[in-house]
UniProtKB/TrEMBL annotation, chain A:
<dbReference type="InterPro" id="IPR003593">
    <property type="entry name" value="AAA+_ATPase"/>
</dbReference>
<feature type="domain" description="ABC transporter">
    <location>
        <begin position="15"/>
        <end position="250"/>
    </location>
</feature>
<dbReference type="InterPro" id="IPR027417">
    <property type="entry name" value="P-loop_NTPase"/>
</dbReference>
<comment type="similarity">
    <text>Belongs to the ABC transporter superfamily.</text>
</comment>
<keyword id="KW-0547">Nucleotide-binding</keyword>
<dbReference type="Pfam" id="PF00005">
    <property type="entry name" value="ABC_tran"/>
</dbReference>
<keyword id="KW-0813">Transport</keyword>
<dbReference type="InterPro" id="IPR003439">
    <property type="entry name" value="ABC_transporter-like_ATP-bd"/>
</dbReference>
<dbReference type="InterPro" id="IPR017871">
    <property type="entry name" value="ABC_transporter-like_CS"/>
</dbReference>
<dbReference type="GO" id="GO:0005524">
    <property type="term" value="F:ATP binding"/>
</dbReference>
<protein>
    <recommendedName>
        <fullName>ABC transporter domain-containing protein</fullName>
    </recommendedName>
</protein>
<dbReference type="GO" id="GO:0016887">
    <property type="term" value="F:ATP hydrolysis activity"/>
</dbReference>
<keyword id="KW-0067">ATP-binding</keyword>
<dbReference type="InterPro" id="IPR050166">
    <property type="entry name" value="ABC_transporter_ATP-bind"/>
</dbReference>
Amino acid sequence: MPPAPAAAAPAATVIAVEDIGLTFPSKSGEATVALFDVSCRFAPGKVTAIIGPSGCGKSTLLQIVRGFLTPTRGKLRFVRLGAEDTAGAPPHMATVWQAFNLFPWRTIIDNVAFGLEVAGVAKAERLARAKKALAAVDLSGFEQKYPRQLSGGMRQRVGIARALVMEPEVLLLDEPFGALDAQTRLVLQEQLATLVETSGTTAILVTHSIEEAILLADTILVMTARPGRIAAEIVNDLPHPRSMATTHDPGFSVLFDRIYGLLRQEVIRAMATEGGDA
Amino acid sequence: MSSNGPMATPATAPAEADPPGLLQRLGEPRALSWIAVVVVIVAWELAVIVLQLNPIYLPRPSRIVVALYEMFRTGGLTTDLVATLIRIFGGFFIALFFGVALGVWMATSVRVKAIADNFIAALYPLPKVTLIPLLIIWLGTGGPFMLTISMLGAFFPIVINTVLGISQCDQGLVLAARDLGASRRQIIRMVLLPSAIPSIFAGIRLGLGVSIILVVAAEMVVGKVGLGARLYLAGQVLETEQVFAVLIVLATLGIVVTKIQDAIDVRLGHWRVN
Ligand SMILES: Nc1ncnc2c1ncn2[C@@H]1O[C@H](COP(=O)(O)OP(=O)(O)OP(=O)(O)O)[C@@H](O)[C@H]1O
Ligand SMILES: [Mg+2]
């Protein structure tokens, strides 16, 4: 476990997942054990990546952290760091979705301002803040367009702006670039790395891309095939700021090979079980 | 607008780019649709004259127009039209309000849906004209009866389409709204309803059509004023010109309602197109 940063803000909260299990009941066949005995901690101000084979329960874990799913076993705790660690309230979170999930009938600026609108922020203020958030993801000038008029990469930048405008303490990213082409993905990964580094928020990033995990995360959790457990927790101390140049760092290949070695077995195992299920 | 393909001539012959000829313009779909109407009316007029048909069976279009004008000027047709419109739209708006409300409630609560399901399954396919005798026994033949019959026509299509539209809402959008802090009510108002609007609108189209049919039918049976009553009375005394005149008013009403719906559809759905 990496030590908490010495200069952590007083309100810093660790998200502690303790022996969590989740089983989806099913009416027809047997129940799906999505997660089994998962324990991990998400440190404040750090980016943690979760990587694992398809169907291993990554999204499920994220939904548990968000509070949208209740684990069938184990506990989710929020620990306030201080002189003495105390139980804290859940930190403020916002999610970026693989499917973007923009409201198609709202203009781009009204999409970004949605969270502020439901929170009762006055119109002038929320539009000003949404405009700033859009500028931060290089989308100035697209305020009055509709999601359908934007490319996939632009839509996900709107998704990121919509989450960041809420100034969340924890940013949850569920395969944010999974639906994008490889080039767009590279550019957005770099941009996200910068945004997260400068804002200093805690982030949890679910991804299928080893490069993405190494580029963005401080800690990388590798999960096993279903039922998902944590196979390894890998600390990534490649220097910041990271960019595509980081992929030429010798440390990058070492990390890559290690993660790939772990994942390879699990992906093969996942494929075998999928075949057995069918 | 036209599907004639590119009209522009090559850049080498700019002088030839004169406006399309009259014949070409008449061939455009928009023009054609009106020309067809004119041709039919003229043929009708001529046929009646040439074949010397009895106007009790088929009056000349020109006579019908005169009759229509006279009915508006001195015959009180405006009163009938207004009465019919109030009945149709009064009942329709009541149905719209309660239909959408019940639809939202059913779509967001399995219990409410369970309670309402069988009643709706029984009443929706029932031809509503069959309820006219019962409603007359209960409500008489006045305003409350007319509003109820109109309301019944529009209510079920609106409820069913609201439920359908809301249950087809992308769950990802609901999760995103929840994630951004929206309450249950805010999710209904800001996510479920807007995403169900195309479907609700389909229900409105169906429902308003049924309301119009029912009100006119009810007026024909029991009305003293209203377009249906006027139509029935004119038929009784073999005033065929007046029968046609009322039919023209009803047809025009149908066109106007359809066009207004199209216009609202375009406005509400502007995010769907470019
Ligand atoms: N609501 C649900 N009901 C039943 N089973 C579910 C439900 N949600 C997920 N599952 C199952 O739980 C397992 C884990 O799902 P989850 O979506 O968390 O996987 P994932 O790791 O995010 O996969 P992917 O990489 O494909 O997104 C899968 O086998 C999935 O089929
Ligand atoms: Mg997933």
